[in-house]
Design a protein that fits this description.
By secondary structure, the chain is mainly α. About 55% of the residues lie in helices and about 5% in strands. The chain folds into 2 domains: about 120 residues, no CATH class; about 90 residues, no CATH class. The relative contact order is 0.10. Keywords: Membrane, Transmembrane, Transmembrane helix.
Length: about 230
């Protein structure tokens, strides 16, 4: 676990993508990384190979370490016995079981890679980090509906391209108000910082001096309020 967190920190990939800030972001990121690592080690859930979670290389590395740990644990167990008679089974039988199960696991995983669509094979070996994935939603997004997803992610992930995102929202906001695309709802508007909204549009949102707050609660159907500084 220590190696995993060191790997995440060195790659600047500790922060999870959920759009939280401050202490809540720290707590959520650490707990999420911890829980996902444990789940993958013991179950091998392949969905967690996504760049926003463990990442392809991280997931594959965890699987290799899990297999290796089986042999290490077996060796440690028999080396720690005072008497051979204390063992739950003969050592040779244990090695046969461990080797057989690990071999089956490798065969099943290899078969899975062979029959899956070619374009997904690379996801098991991808070095893309969470923040690179988040930024790709905006940079490589085919339309506004895809690009806007960057705003639902942790701001730390897209801090380096914030100016570009701001220019995009400022340039298109009035058009969205006229065309009213499906994504241009209250949750989306709440996810955009005040300085990324044209002044006239911001005044319209500032009903009663408050505006809904972008948070994890918005994604789950909740919400909150935040003060909006009047625009002169």
């Amino acid at each position: 676990m220590g190696l995993y967190f060191t790997y995440k920190i060195l790659r600047r990939d500790l922060w999870h993508w959920v759009a939280l800030e401050g202490a809540s972001s720290v707590v959520e990121s650490v707990l999420e990384r911890l829980v996902v690592k444990v789940l993958v080690d013991f179950t091998g859930v392949i969905q967690f190979r996504a760049a926003g979670e463990m990442g392809g290389v991280g997931w594959t590395g965890a699987m290799i370490m899990a297999l290796a740990a089986s042999f290490v644990a077996t060796r440690v167990y028999y080396a720690s016995l005072d008497e051979v008679e204390d063992a739950v089974m003969d050592e040779s039988v244990a090695w046969t079981i461990v080797g057989g199960l690990c071999g089956l696991g490798i065969c099943f995983q290899s078969s899975f890679l062979l029959i899956m669509k070619r374009k997904y094979v690379t996801t098991f070996f991808s070095t893309q980090t969470g923040y690179q994935w988040t930024q790709s939603l905006f940079v490589n997004g085919a339309d506004d509906g895809v690009k806007r997803r960057v705003l639902l992610h942790n701001k730390k992930h897209w801090a380096s391209i914030r100016d570009d995102v701001k220019a995009w929202t400022m340039e298109n906001w009035e058009r969205w108000e006229e065309e009213k695309p499906a994504f241009f709802n209250d949750a989306f508007k709440a996810s955009v910082d005040d300085d990324m909204i044209p002044a006239e549009s911001l005044r319209g949102l500032n009903v009663g001096g408050t505006r809904r707050r972008s948070s994890l609660g918005d994604l789950l159907g909740g919400g909150g309020e935040r003060r909006v500084v009047p625009v002169n």
